[in-house]
Amino acid sequence: MKASKYKAKLNFLQREAILIGEISNFDYLLEFKNSLKIKKESIKKTIDAIKEGVRVGRVTEFKLIRLKDELLNIDMEIKKVDSLIATSKANIYKLTKLKPTTKIPIHSNIPKSGEFFELKPIKSEIEAMKYEIKAAKDKFLPKVFFKADGYRAFGEGDADSFGSVGVYLTWEIFNKKNLASVQKAKIKYLKSELSFDKNLKDLIAKKDEILKRIDNLNASIKMAKKSLRIKRELLKSAKVAFELDEMSVDEYLGYENELAKARATLASLIAKKNMLIAQLAFMYGENFKKVFK
User: What is this structure's pTM?
Assistant: First the structure.
């Protein structure tokens, strides 16, 4: 692969990888904000449910005040997330000239194993070194050439023609300059081979690590979804207990926080998985449109 072509594709792949990272982060932030909004609406419903109990003295007013204070905390947290979303949106605009307003769903597929894109220029260099060594060695081969000379001599009234034909052999087997060229080419070739082997070993290790992390994330995503379902059920029970004044306000808010955290955690795991898959696609020089849909 020519250096200019490699560099152009490298820049393109880097831009695509950055874009996938920004979109994944943007989607995560929107999901995080959504979890806060759901938590806020849930607490509002709880406030409405205990208002009558507070009015008749069955539920202490402290609980009502504490819940209203939590709503203010949530609003402040949402403002912080809005700021992060604005930054992420600006980054996406720089790359695409588009301003997303809603979540951009990403469906990712692990790219198939193939040749590492980073190794292509080194591989091309090795091939070039082979030709360079061959060209240097060819200078030691004996060279045969044909030579013919002719001329005419003029005398008194006569003209005589003379000629010579010969096959000549040259063999520069002891040419120091040629020997130096061969050695120099071999050194460059060996350096390229060592560089290729080292980079290949490092890339294989990196690929294996990424695949292992993706497997772990898949397992974590599965557990996070199960945890989310359980925490929804726990919150339902906690609401009932709290409204019956059988649970403290902090205990109840703990269940609200756990559910919101579970939603954000799931979104974070999905974003991390997409970013790892983007790394693999970059390593293989894969078309991102085939990997992410």
Answer: 0.77
